[in-house]
Amino acid sequence: IQEFLTLHVCNNGDARYHVDDASTGSVKIWHCIGPYSLYRNVNFVLKLTSLIYWRCWRQECRANLQTNIFNLDDQAPNITILQEGPHTHEEDDTVIGVDTTLQSLRSAIQQDPSVPIKRVYNNFARNVAQGGGDREHIPEFHRVRSTMTRTRLAHVPAVPHDIDEVSIHGHWKRTWSEDRFLLYKNNDWGVLIYATHENLLNLRQCKEIYCDGTFRTCPRPYSQYFTIHGRYRNRVMCFVNCLMTDRNIGDYRHILETLKVKIRQITRHRWRPRKVICDFELALIAAVETELPRAQISGCYFHFNQSLWRKVQNLGLAASYRRRPAVKSLVRKVMAIGYLPIAVVRQNFRLLRTSRRTQRLCRRYNGLRDFLDYFERNYLNGLFPPQMWNVYERDMNNRTNNSVESFHRLWNNTVSVRHPSLWTFIRCLKDQQATLENSVEAVDRGDPAPKRKRKWRNLEARMMRLKEEYNNGTRNLDQYWNAVCYGVVQF
């Protein structure tokens, strides 16, 4: 077996190395301690001789070297210098320093090949500068770009452009701690699920489940990054990460059914959350109703208000809302109707709509009538009944998907690019999983939860006080309704 090796040898005779075969496929051995004399071996057959013969890398130098045969697979092989000839040139400190730099860059790329090579180079240069190292041996980026690119291409699979091309192997299937991370992949359904077994164990303990999706940082060829969170010991955490090509009822059902099977296999128990909080996506709601029939489905109150505000904008009422207090008051009362007891929602909406003041506003602003029709058609007598979006009996923690929205906002900032490559996305997932494991460990040992922002604490205290005043008769229903109107703008 012919091997083409490069060996760096110290003046004191020591020879240590690490192997890199990323760029050419041949084995290269680099020694990391200086000063050095640099040798390169001639062709040899390991099985036919008891020695390895080396020669100086400079063609004009006739120096040669003999070492024992050592096992390339050993982390620290015993290399013995048996014979060494004199060199006819000065020590190759600069060449060896550049080679050492290249090896460090290669090692960094091999550890995480999804990181752009320019960032790898910048991080290495910064670390050398901060550590007070010798920057003389750091070549300019344009001199090492091709070498770094070849190394990266040898360790990063091709970016899939079609769902049939998605194939995940090796460390892309595992967490940074080498735990199994890829839970399920089905190219026919266009579904990819990342979750560890520990994640599923924790998810099963959660009685409240939060679901939401984002599109901005979803890698091609997928179209949505869909996450499932659970309230674990009063902390909402992301336990399941899904990539989807479509958002039909069947796709959501397939994901939920897969999770039910996997959780049953791991825990020997059924997955039966008591409550699922999500946005008002019909396909997702239908899938949850089918696959988790015992769970109570609650719509996110933030998305409820958001959909009403978008309707206000679509009807051209945004300017009137900002300029006319009467229009603003009417729209806010509709948005705040979810704070009323569910038994009086329909009656009070009917009274609001048929009041003389509302009728005058509808005659003056034509869009208001369409706005009220939209609310009645969709959220009163339509697909989303009051039981789904009413929050009178809900506490502040499960009124909205704000914790999930915050997670996606932080995630988008972390990824920092729209539609990254699949491999960059998976690298960020592995980082996020490491953060999740730290958070779970902190919760398990009883560390206090992060403080919520003051505005949310004040809003919760205000809403609880208003509800208590209504229940004990200090405020009547109309006074309570008018007061909670000022809370909806916080969402």
TrEMBL record:
**Which domain of life, per UniProt?**
Eukaryota
Occurrences of domain MULE transposase (ranges) = 210-306
> Which residue windows are transmembrane per the record?
none
PANTHER family in alphabetical order: MULE TRANSPOSASE DOMAIN-CONTAINING PROTEIN, PUTATIVE-RELATED
Record protein name field? MULE transposase domain-containing protein
Lineage of source species:
Eukaryota, Metazoa, Spiralia, Lophotrochozoa, Mollusca
